[in-house]
Amino acid sequence: MKKADIYRYLADGGVPQPKSDAPKALTDKVDTVLGIVAWAGTAAGVAGVLITGAMMAMSLRRGEGSEHMGRLGMVLGGCVLVATAGPLVNFVF
User: Fold this and answer.
1) Which residues, at least 6 apart from 66, have a Cβ–Cβ distance to it below 8 Å?
2) Structure confidence at residue 32 as a pLDDT band (50, 70, 90)
3) CB 59 within 8 A of CB 68
4) Whole-angstrom distance, CA of residue 91 vs CA of residue 31
């Protein structure tokens, strides 16, 4: 197929839309696994925030510098990534 044919094909709005023909049993299992992974990611994010907060409190009590703010930022960034992964994939696909 030539480039001109491809451009004409796309300009006509004839972009192929493949049908999803994955077996229902497979999609149910994949959805279950993805749900468990999403739940585990959320639980890890909550645990990370709690652990980082506890470490910050102990450092403050000892009078040490607060180097844990960077760690808290990374944990919160991970939480945002886990929370927005599903909607981002749905938007793209």
Assistant:
1) 56, 59, 60
2) very high
3) yes
4) 17
